[in-house]
Amino acid sequence: MMERKRELFGLGLDALEEFFLSLGLARYRSKQVYNWLYKKFVFDFAAMSDIAKGDREVLADKCSILPGEIEIAKTQRSADGLTEKVLLRYSDGALVESVLMEHDYGHSVCLSSQVGCPMGCRFCASGQQGLERDLTAAEILAQGAIFGKHLAEQGKRWSRLVVMGSGEPFLNYANVLAALDFFHRPDAWGLSYRHMTVSTCGIVPGIERLAREGKPINLAISLHSVRQEVRSALMPANKVYPFPSVLKAAAAYGADSGRQVTYEYILIAGLNHTEEDAELLASYLKGQNAAVNLIPANPVPDKGIERPAMKDCRAFCRRLQRAGLNATLRKEMGKDIAAACGQLRGAAAKAGVHEGGYSGAGDQ
Ligand code: SAH
Fold this sequence. Notes:
alpha/beta; DNA polymerase, domain 1; TIM Barrel; about 35% helix; binds S-adenosyl-L-homocysteine
């Protein structure tokens, strides 16, 4: 039987060192490889030029580097050049999207936590085929690394992470946290937890567990309505964790962590943006250290999801502001490439990318 190669990506320096010693490699090789992986974003042993050829051969024989094996099945860039989205294909064929966004404060990466999603939100393209599998911590990290490499080539780096791609992060809690902890490692990327955000549809035990971590990770809640019947129709998770319990857990998280909680609220034509909706939302959130991020829905016509007129979106935003909430209407990024919500993967599945019908011709 063929011996499985050991995956190095996401191993801490200490674990890497121990493993290298067991292979008979010199201790300092681990630091060299670590630097290639996380400082230079080089994912190919052959290119690690300060490592003796013999050692490189041992490494290639015994070890693998995940980001080097992930295929970029498709790349799309928005017309304004500020958003770049990739469709990644892992070696088992799983397809996942990640997005790089350029803001005035720097670059942020939107990571997926699962392949597909089990939550079944009506407006969301990622969940339409259900959950395929969880991503491992290394697979989550690798998304950041792939953009890291791309940015490093331009002398840049990402400065923020949001776990807001496909999947429900709190249903893959341990792997998501392990990935964020690795991003935080001072000997690798040293990213502050304050620059990381986890977005949930409202898995209350997950929110409570994150609170117990005591890390200043930002929490975002996908709220979208504060009416039971409307929210349950949009988000089946509301039947298990009704939004008042979500709001309570999130407020406690904000108080404990000292971080402002963000509530995402997609505006869906005819569904959740009346004057009463605004008043109700304000009554729930008033006095909290919270921000409301309003997002005109990305249309999903076969599910009856359309966006309201822009003037109605602005009116809803103003109502919330007048009621004392810190509300903003999100500047849309990458709408022309459907960056928000799993639409690239959905389109790829229809076009047969999953079956290998797509030849990976996406420009890299
Ligand atoms: N499961 C997590 C993270 C993934 S969803 C969560 O629910 O937060 C990431 C964000 O994209 C969520 O706020 C989700 O509500 C939003 N989203 C999904 N479909 C959308 C659509 N059609 N238009 C606008 N936002 C959408």
